[in-house]
Design brief:
Layout: H1 7-21, H2 34-49, H3 51-61, H4 71-86, H5 92-106, H6 109-127, H7 139-147, H8 151-161, H9 163-173, E1 179-183, H10 190-200, E2 205-206, E3 213-216, H11 220-224, E4 233-235, H12 242-247, E5 254-258, H13 264-272, E6 278-283, H14 286-298, E7 304-308, E8 319-325, H15 339-343, H16 346-364, E9 367-377, H17 386-395, E10 399-401, E11 420-421, H18 424-427, E12 433-439
Parallel strand pairs: 5-6, 5-8, 6-7, 8-9
Antiparallel strand pairs: 1-3, 1-4, 2-3, 9-12, 10-12, 11-12
Length: 441
């Protein structure tokens, strides 16, 4: 009998692969329809946001140590518990029955019975307001279990922010994120897109920070209407829009977008330049170059030239403006990319910082005299951000930081206006950092 792929089954498959390979591979979701794909993404990211707490409950309810469980069974239990405890509007029978049936089909009848017993117990204790709560003498471990963040990050943020503010950050990282749509003026006009949103009945909130950005709670309805396919808008967090805004590319200029895949910022640059000039969209990853080309065509960015290159090894002609969206730890986007909190390590952070320094050095050598360089990350780690820039300026006396108050609201700027940093728990958006550097000689 052929097994029908559902959102729950696809989620278990993806999460099990993640446990085994430490990478998130979502291609199986392409086999689902739009609604089921959105549901699967909710399960996957939601479970990853709550993984430590879910595992704590499993350990409380199971006689089998969680480390000894088969990965598939462990994720079946996570799925069932997540549906019971965190999926508003999901009937209990649906949250329990399908995971139990998956356990029976994928593993064994005995596994199905065990899953049923664990989930039914959780259901009873939730209704009686008697769910177990983490209680352990190690304060860092307690916080890490409660908020489902790795211990090294918990220790880092408690030391940096203090417990109260660190808790606020963890809570922000564990919320279902809102998303922003950016209007693509190469295909439509902002006022026309606003009318589309109003007529569609999709709830939205227009940003006061940048024109043409709209906050929505889900992109599933937007995707179903075909607006992405028509190139009318793209998903881009408001904070991610700061980098191309402060670069301020002008029509007719030559611009480099480095580490550009999948090309979201390339599209914004082309829009700001009114499709006049040249954008060299550069990335090292062969398997991602095609996505830049696909997006450029779809969104009508006609001035884009795509190049696969290692910018550290290859030489480039000088440009008027360079945008370096540097590979980073991604700690500013842990709500949308919950997998990153489990994949990153302190050792990897050190390697990332070293790579960023090399990339920034390479980017600086592409800027013409009088030209501009934006360095940006989606990280909230000082070592990747302002400390990285300070180290750069110690070596390059031909660059100066430029004030950003003409481009961005004061609430996202440092006191000297020379950098921006958003924090999820403070600004209600992704955590992004950026500076604008001018080559003065």
């Amino acid at each position: 009998m052929e097994t029908i792929l559902t959102a729950r089954l696809a989620s278990i498959t993806v999460l099990t692969e993640f446990d085994k390979e430490n990478r998130l591979e979502n291609r199986i979701l392409d086999e689902l329809d739009t609604r089921e794909r959105a549901q699967a993404n909710e399960y996957i990211q939601g479970i990853l946001r709550r993984r430590s707490f879910l595992d704590f409950l499993i350990a409380e309810y199971s006689s089998v140590p969680i480390a000894e469980m088969e990965a598939t069974f462990r994720n079946i239990l996570r799925l069932g518990l997540y549906g019971l405890l965190f999926m508003d509007g999901t009937p209990d029978h649906a949250a329990i029955n399908e995971p139990v049936e998956i356990a029976k089909r994928k593993i064994s009848s005995r596994s199905g019975d065990m899953a049923n017993a664990i989930l039914r117990r959780a259901q009873r204790e939730r209704e009686a307001n008697q769910l177990p709560k983490p209680a352990m003498p190690d304060r860092i471990k307690l916080i890490a279990t409660t908020f489902s963040h790795p211990e090294w990050l918990v220790e880092r943020y408690v030391k940096r922010f203090g417990e109260r503010e660190a808790f606020q950050l963890f809570q922000a990282n564990n919320k279902r994120p809102d998303f922003y749509l950016r209007v693509n003026n190469l295909r439509t006009k902002t006022e026309n897109f606003t009318l589309r949103l109003e007529k569609s009945g999709i709830p939205f909130e227009e940003s006061e920070w940048l024109p043409g950005y709209y906050k929505v709670t889900s992109v599933a309805e937007v995707r179903a209407k075909g607006w992405f396919d028509k190139g009318l808008c793209q998903v881009q967090d408001i904070a991610a829009g700061f980098a191309p805004t402060v670069l301020d590319p002008q029509p007719g200029e030559t611009v480099y977008d480095l580490c550009a895949a999948p090309g979201t910022k390339t599209i914004v640059l082309a829009d700001l330049m009114q499709n006049q000039g040249t954008i060299h969209s550069v990335d090292i990853a062969q398997n991602r170059i095609g996505k830049i080309a696909e997006n450029a065509e779809n969104y009508g960015a006609e001035i884009v030239k795509i190049q696969r290159a290692d910018i550290i090894e290859e030489r480039f002609k000088l440009a008027d403006a360079v945008l370096l969206d540097a590979p980073c730890s991604g700690t500013g986007v842990l709500s949308k990319r919950a997998d990153l909190r489990w994949r990153r390590t302190p050792e990897e952070l050190t390697a990332i910082i070293e790579k960023q320094a090399e990339l920034l050095d390479a980017a600086a050598n592409m800027v013409a005299k009088g030209g501009r360089l934006v360095y940006t990350t989606c990280s909230i780690e000082p070592e990747e951000n302002m400390k990285q820039v300070e180290k750069f300026l110690e070596e390059y006396d031909n660059f100066e930081l430029q004030p950003l108050d003409d481009f961005l609201p004061e609430e996202v700027l440092a006191e000297d206006f020379l950098s921006y940093q958003t924090l999820p728990h403070v600004h209600g958006c992704d955590g992004h950092f950026g500076v604008l550097l001018k080559r003065i000689k």
